[in-house]
Amino acid sequence: MLQIENLHATVGGKEILKGLSLTVNAGEVHAIMGPNGAGKSTLSYVLGGRPGYEVTGGSATLDGPDGQIDLLDLEPHERAAAGLFLGFQYPVEIPGVSFVQFLREAANAQRKNRGEEPLSGGEFLKLAKEKAALLKLDMDMLKRPVNVGFSGGEKKRAEMVQMGILNPAFAVLDETDSGLDIDALRVVGDGINAIMRAPDRAVLLITHYQRLLDYVKPDYVHVLADGRIVKTGGPELALMLEDEGYEAVTA
Amino acid sequence: MSDAALLPTTRDEDWRYADGEWLAAADPAYVGHWRTLDIAPGESKSDYDVHASGGDATAGTVDRLRVHVGKGGRYALFITNAAGPYARHEIEVTLEEGAHFEFGGVTLGGGDYRQEFVTRVNHAPRSTSNQVVRCVQWGRSVGNFLGRIEIPRDSQQVDAAQNFRAILLEAGASANAKPELEIFADDVKAAHGAAIGALDERAAFYMASRGIAPHVARKLLLRAFVADAFEAIADDAMREHMLEQTLERLDEGLL
Rounded mean pLDDT of A69-74? Predict the structure, then answer.
């Protein structure tokens, strides 16, 4: 579903991704772990098309309904319409714009891009309520400005509510587990499973810790170090990393 | 100095960011003219204006208003200044005891428009004022806010606030803020803040990552930004009307 080949990328002139290759098939959950500075967040931003993250080589394609889409060729909002969702490590606060307005705008922009009818106000609210309930987020919070005054945990749950509403084919979740207490971690884990565990979907989980993987069982675990995937294994690799550390496992 | 006899120049402090060339060619009687408004004690009045150039974009505007607000009275003024090539709205307010002045101003312009608000508020004891100015500039346009707050020595328990923010959408645009607080009383609250920057790029990318096209994201962000200036409008329909009218000018200018 997602094919990344020999991807090179620079940030501020410094090469961060140095030939990263990765294939994620439909129906799979992959986890990427790795030390600080390895390039994990850079990978998610490069896939999302954040300005300032420059691709200097390689390719990234996503399977769409009409064949392969060259992700790197699309504007960020077009990537979203093509089915890519980016869960932010640090969700952005937007004063003055309500979550409901923001998400309805987003959902309908994506539908329009796919040639679908926009959701009415009522249809949208019904969908938003359903997904907020799934993530145990108070619906009243979605009436507030985007992420403003949300705790770290609430921001992460709100990210997953957004994912539920936007219904992507492929999600890249960058440290969605950071800032969550044990109960919230379970809620978020269950949410990811409910929304994304399907034969026609796939997830790339970027995480520092094994604990999220207790709830969202990965099919593959990769170790990212110095801009490349240096080791790939099953769920047991994450446990090994937790016990022995990156240096020992990748040596 | 007699008001009508001499033309101000950019050497005058209150005109330092004005369009000097425009001023030099202007009619002294026009530039020197003041409108006056008297709010009786305990009375309340609100004015709303969306000022665009309309058919004649070459004329320019200097609009000067002198307001006296009687004891316990209230005057609220909300203006969108989207006119050119030089458009100045100057408001001088004298507040009697316990009176309030509320001001919300938006400048919005491109090309080589030069748009400004100049306010002077003189406070009697226990009077209050709140001013919020937002500038959105592109092209080589300039947005200015010169705001003076005068609190004489015997004017205790005054609360005066001033907040200015500008968003520059393109590299050639600029904004100037000149807050002046002349405070001689000691038991007062006076707050001011000023910030000039670009559109929040992180917010724009966050919106794009959710599928919102750049021009829609920009409009949502600017709507939120401009809305601050109209937040104090109590009537929901009027607030929405001012916001819509203002954003229409933005659409016209940026498309």
Answer: 95
- pLDDT tens figures, A177-186: 888 888 899 9
Domain residues for the domain of B121 are 13-198
Domain ranges of chain A: 2-250
User: pLDDT, tens digit, for every residue of B196-206?
Assistant: 999 999 999 99
Of A235-239, B100-104, B133-137, B141-145, the poorest mean pLDDT is in A235-239
* Beta sheet of B142-151, edge-to-edge order: B35-39, B61-69, B86-95, B114-123, B142-151, B174-183
CATH fourth-level superfamily of A2-250? P-loop containing nucleotide triphosphate hydrolases (3.40.50.300)
**Tally of domains within chain B:** 1
Query: CB–CB of B209 and A76 under 8 A?
Result: yes
Q: What tokens appear for B136 in the block? A: 């959105």
In a domain, B60, yes or no: yes
What residues of chain B have any CB closer than 8 angstroms to a CB in chain A?
200-203, 205-214, 216-217, 220-221, 223-225, 227-228
Q: How far apart are CA A93 and CA A104, in angstroms?
A: 17
Inter-residue contact B72 to B97 (CB < 8 Å)? yes
Contact A96 B200 (CB under 8 A): no
Residue A218: its pLDDT value, please? Answer: 95
Minimal C-alpha gap between B186 and chain A (Å) = 34
pLDDT (mean) for A184-213: 93
How far CA A86 is from CA of A90, A98, A114, B97, in Å, comes to 11, 20, 19, 56
Q: Which of A97, A146, A159 to mutate to test the interface with B (most CBs of B within 10 A)?
A: A97
Binding-site residues on chain A for chain B (CB distance < 8 A):
48-51, 75-77, 79-81, 85-86, 88, 91-97, 101-103, 105-107, 109-110, 113, 145-146, 162, 166
Res. B253: pLDDT tops 90: no
